[in-house]
Write a structure and sequence with these properties.
alpha+beta, 4 helices, 38% helix, 21% strand, globular
């Protein structure tokens, strides 16, 4: 794994770790992404409300949004390959990704 790209749904901040209705998995994902960065993995994270052009410019993301709507978010790509859609990775999935 050299690059991971995350296309998040519209959130109040870049990580979603704020507000009263915070998804409890978001801090775990943020910590995981930070660890990856410390080990040389390039992490690119896009928030629909803050960087909408990133969603338009990526043809695969744009096509998924057109066909499935915003419910398809979040999207996770590893080295350009879609590996997860519609959910954040649980602990088991994150472990699998680390083994790649």
């Amino acid at each position: 794994m050299k690059t991971i790209q995350i296309y998040d749904p519209a959130m109040c901040c870049s990580t979603g770790i704020c507000g009263p209705d915070m998804d409890p998995i978001l801090p775990q994902v943020a910590g995981f992404l930070h660890q990856l960065q410390e080990h040389g993995v390039q992490v690119e994270r896009f928030n629909l409300s803050q960087q909408p052009m990133a969603f338009v410019q990526n043809k695969q993301v744009n096509a998924l949004l057109q066909s499935e709507g915003v419910e398809v978010l979040p999207l996770f790509f590893i080295d350009g390959e879609l590996v997860l859609k519609g959910a954040y990775p649980d602990q088991e999935t994150r472990k699998e990704w680390l083994s790649k």
